[in-house]
Amino acid sequence: MEFAILKEAMARVPGPVVVVTMVDGTERRFGFTASSFVSVSLEPPLILVCLGKEASTHPAFQAANTFMVNVLAEGQEEVARRFSTSGVDRFAASDMMPCELGLPGLPDAVARVACSMHRIVDAGDHSILIGQVESVYVGNRSPLVYANRLFSRVESPALARDAR
Ligand SMILES: Cc1cc2nc3c(=O)[nH]c(=O)nc-3n(C[C@H](O)[C@H](O)[C@H](O)COP(=O)(O)O)c2cc1C
After folding, report:
1. CA torsion 134→151→34→110, rounded to 10°?
2. pTM of the prediction?
3. pLDDT at residue 90, rounded to an integer
């Protein structure tokens, strides 16, 4: 099996765009953009996100007791790009505020899901971070979507109606 064909197949699968954040014991903040966010279980409430083992943030998240999933809204492409760019201060724009559990959150996110670390599962070149959901915020914005290697938006009459 060739990696390239699997990558092409997966590129066509639309995914959410989230920024996952945490704070370490010295108050240093870490975050990365991800599209591998899914719900796992309702009882107990569990979610997961996959993080590459080569990522600069991997050691910090491996040691995390809590983490936040910020679900990005349409118009937040710049945030997604910043939190996926190497070697920059991803928090320099000061758009992240202490939110649920004191974790860095975007005030105008579509949703925020604050978690305690339930388990970290070793999975090839990624680690699966499984979070137990402790607190959830839901806004009324329309979500950003990633498909065909492009940021996109969903037509959502219900959300548009609610936002009026
Ligand atoms: C739309 C999008 C989705 C991404 N999804 C993931 C993901 O699910 N898991 C992951 O480990 N990296 C993902 N990345 C890459 C990371 O954001 C980041 O670039 C990578 O961890 C390398 O960062 P580093 O400079 O901290 O090493 C994604 C990037 C983009 C732009």
Report:
1. -10
2. 0.95
3. 98
